[in-house]
Design a protein that fits this description.
By secondary structure, the chain is an alpha+beta fold. It folds into 3 domains: about 110 residues, Butyryl-Coa Dehydrogenase, subunit A, domain 1, CATH 1.10.540.10; about 100 residues, Butyryl-CoA Dehydrogenase, subunit A, domain 2 (Beta Barrel), CATH 2.40.110; about 150 residues, Up-down Bundle (Butyryl-CoA Dehydrogenase, subunit A, domain 3), CATH 1.20.140.10. The chain contains 11 helices and 10 strands. The chain has a 4-stranded mixed β-sheet, covered by helices on one side. β2 and β3 form a beta hairpin. α5 packs antiparallel against α7 and α7 packs antiparallel against α10. The two termini are about 25 Å apart.
């Protein structure tokens, strides 16, 4: 495979990195983290101006999709800066879900606004007890008059408090774990019968549990009734690729911060970077970072694979390697920083929390080991 970047891709990557280095320095990020919203609409607007919110939007609606390498470069830069904005939840998962499931008319109404940063739509799919199983949905949607009645609960919906719309999966037919019978609905966040229990996750992201007992109009249904599972699965795999790329950025930032700290922290009159045992540990960290980087490339290039089984196999392999790197590099960084490694005053503690969250997001390492095995032997 050829991993050389085109001139345009290199320019995009450099532009994003320069923008974030200027506008998203550590102290600026801490101010955003402490703000009531927990993210910056000003930064979101600048990301839209750079065209980065349209990477999953088809060209027919003013975007750049498919743009796997551009997404990789953007997510890596966002990861390195520890950005708190809803890029993964809205610009990747939400946008990819709409592009795959919504009708042409619905896409025309929604996707240009999302690319312009004027509208946020995030998926509300995971439920209590589902344990990463995409087909396990107990939320129900039934026809009521000329519209729909949604009843159910969704768990850990990232950036739900910031979203204009929730993309809610609900079962219109079939059993609780059936792939067939899943539908997708566009639900305004402030609609009657939508209740959010908002909180911050361990890494500072805004999220909410969502309770639904909502009456919706007939056009709230996105695409065909009972046909949403393939779109959900495809969007989740694109999200996995983006998450792996973000992890690489966070891993590199963690390694850089650790190396810099060991050059300045002194014991017995010398920097601790001189100690051979610690050099070995940082070399092991570097190996994990580079392995994750390679798997990030693989994930980006295979996220659009039309063969669902082969796509799942490649994406799960990448997430396993990346998840192992997140755990190892994060733990080593905290240990090499000593007690300072868990204080909010140091960037490495924020990196550690984000790495922990990434390892658990969109399926933890154990889940993806199982999914890789199932895909390798011909299972689901």
């Amino acid at each position: 495979m050829d991993f050389d970047l085109t001139a345009e891709q290199q320019l995009l990557g450099d532009t994003v990195q320069r923008f974030l280095a200027k506008e998203y320095a550590f102290e600026a990020r801490r101010r955003i983290l402490r703000s009531p919203e927990g993210w910056s609409r000003a930064v979101w607007g600048r990301l839209a101006e750079l065209g980065l919110l349209g990477l999953q939007v088809p060209e027919a609606h003013g975007g750049m999709a498919p743009a796997p390498v551009e997404t990789l470069l953007t997510m890596t830069a966002l990861g390195r800066a520890l950005c708190l904005e809803p890029y993964l939840s809205s610009a990747v998962l939400g946008t990819a879900l709409l592009a795959a499931q919504a009708s042409p008319a619905q896409q025309a109404a929604l996707l240009p606004a999302m690319a312009a940063g004027e509208r946020l739509a995030v998926p509300a799919h995971g439920e209590p007890g589902a344990r990463y199983d995409l087909s396990r949905v107990s939320t129900r949607a039934a026809r009521e008059g000329g519209g729909w009645r949604l009843r159910g609960k969704k768990a850990v919906v990232l950036h739900a408090p910031a979203a204009d719309h929730l993309l809610v999966s609900a079962r219109t037919s079939g059993g609780e774990a059936d792939e067939a019978g899943l539908s997708l609905f566009l639900v305004p966040r402030e609609a009657g019968g939508v209740k959010l229990l908002s909180y911050r996750t361990i890494d500072g992201q805004v999220a909410a549990d969502v309770e639904l007992d909502a009456a919706l109009p007939g056009d709230a249904l996105l695409g065909g009734e009972g046909t949403a599972f393939a779109a959900i699965s495809s969007a989740w795999d694109r999200g996995l690729a983006a998450l792996c790329a973000e992890a690489v950025g966070v891993l590199q930032a963690t390694l850089d911060a650790t190396i810099e700290y060991t050059k300045t922290r002194r014991q017995f009159g010398v920097p601790i970077a001189k100690f051979q045992a610690l050099q070995h540990r940082m070399a092991d960290m570097l190996i994990h970072v580079e392995q994750a980087r390679s798997m990030g490339y693989l994930a980006a290039l295979r996220a659009g694979e039309p063969d669902a089984r082969e796509r799942r196999r490649a994406l799960s392999a990448a997430k396993v390697v990346v998840g192992q790197a997140c755990r190892f590099v994060g733990q080593q960084a905290v240990q090499l920083h000593g007690g300072m490694g868990v204080t909010d005053e140091l960037a490495v503690s924020h990196c550690f929390k984000r790495l922990l969250a990434i390892e658990l997001s969109l399926g933890d390492t154990d889940h993806h080991v199982e999914r890789f095995i199932a895909a390798s032997v011909g299972g689901a």
